[in-house]
Amino acid sequence: MQIPVPRFVDTILDWRRTATLARLALVSAYLLGGIVKLGDWPAAVAEQAHFGLHPPPVWAALTIAVELIGPILILTGRFVWLGAGMLGVFTLLAAFTANAFWAMPAGQARFMATNAFFEHLGLIGGFVLVALLDRARRA
User: Fold this and answer.
1) CA-to-CA distance for 64 and 57, rounded, in angstroms?
2) What is the pTM of this model?
3) What angle do CA 75, 78, 79 make, to 5 degrees?
């Protein structure tokens, strides 16, 4: 037995701005991160050094580029597959770099890293869905 979709849900999904707001919500942390890093270059470099990425300035520049270009592509509807792919790969690398819960002893830090790792996987799923929806729209 299939449950009918409530009318208010259909209304929200039919609203022409829903997709735009959903894409903005999905990429907002990346946009903010890129802007903040761009505004505080020494902190951006220090962050990369903290995660053991060398040379830190190169990784900081790449991170800023991905965090700004990926969302712009998704939000403008131009090369959505590329923006989603950039952010998906970046997010996967970040999950393995910053949230290696399997290498941590049991405790609060491991619990937090495990949650963050799987939240990153959820974001990757969101980027795949964005690319799929864009492909369907273009077909």
Assistant:
1) 11
2) 0.93
3) 110
